[in-house]
């Protein structure tokens, strides 16, 4: 799968990683970039095709698929972070996270899958797909579910030769993470790794040192993992 000449749709393209995806895709010669958002008037990248898309609204997703029948790569980037925990958090916020990251991603995949034979899907996941963090219980649960979705969709679409790639990252230097004072990776570095992964036909991209560390912990005892994670995050 080559980016050059490809027609690509990016969800959540009005800011952060989504905006960077749109910019980098154009830089790599994408033939057309559909930059989508719930409010397309907020998209400010010259050269893209702005398109309204609310991933939590099946009718909006169906309209977007009808408006972009030539798409061969879909980048599921749209996301939220409510800060809700599972035991004490607002259930409506927890549902919003799941509706966006799991059901929203699934809505988009189901709508576009028929036109993605020999194409590609990239789901923007997180190192938090694999590591619980106090203060992000809903985000962790939703991203873990989206990781499982990614793995299952990869199997289901293998017969039509659709590449399904999961992108894992730690903190990116975007407005969503403006509050975080630890190390953050530049959006263009994350996006470059993701697009290289698509062109390299890779099922998984670990975009930074933190995602690689968390993946390495997956075979460890949870007591060890969370002790080491707490020590690393306190530095």
Automatic annotation (TrEMBL):
Keywords: Oxidoreductase
Signal peptide: none
Pfam families registered for this protein in UniProt: adh_short
Top-rank taxon: Bacteria
InterPro entries documented for this protein: NAD(P)-bd_dom_sf, SDR_fam
NCBIfam families per the UniProt record, alphabetical: PRK08264.1-5 (NF006119)
Family stated for the protein in its record: Belongs to the short-chain dehydrogenases/reductases (SDR) family.
Name of protein: SDR family oxidoreductase
Organism, as annotated: Sphaerisporangium dianthi
Lineage: Bacteria, Bacillati, Actinomycetota, Actinomycetes, Streptosporangiales
């Amino acid at each position: 799968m080559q980016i050059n000449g490809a027609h690509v749709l990016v969800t959540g393209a009005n800011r952060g990683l989504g905006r960077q995806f749109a910019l980098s895709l154009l830089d790599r010669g994408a033939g057309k970039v559909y930059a989508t958002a719930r409010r397309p008037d907020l998209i400010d990248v010259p050269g893209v095709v702005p398109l309204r898309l609310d991933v939590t609204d099946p009718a909006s997703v169906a309209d977007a698929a009808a408006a972009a029948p030539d798409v061969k790569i879909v980048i599921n980037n749209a996301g939220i972070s409510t800060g809700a925990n599972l035991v004490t958090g607002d259930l409506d916020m927890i549902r919003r996270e799941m509706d966006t990251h799991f059901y929203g991603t699934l809505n988009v995949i189901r709508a576009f899958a028929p036109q993605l034979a020999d194409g590609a899907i990239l789901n923007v996941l997180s190192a938090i797909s694999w590591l619980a963090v106090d203060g992000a219980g809903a985000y962790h649960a939703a991203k873990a579910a989206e990781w499982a979705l990614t793995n299952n969709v990869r199997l289901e679409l293998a017969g039509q030769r659709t590449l399904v790639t999961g992108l894992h990252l730690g903190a990116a230097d975007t407005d969503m993470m403006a509050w975080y004072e630890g190390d953050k990776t530049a959006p263009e570095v994350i996006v470059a790794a993701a697009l290289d992964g698509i062109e390299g036909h890779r099922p998984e991209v670990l975009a930074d040192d933190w995602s690689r560390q968390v993946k390495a912990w997956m075979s460890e005892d949870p007591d060890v993992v969370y002790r080491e994670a707490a020590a690393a995050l306190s530095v």
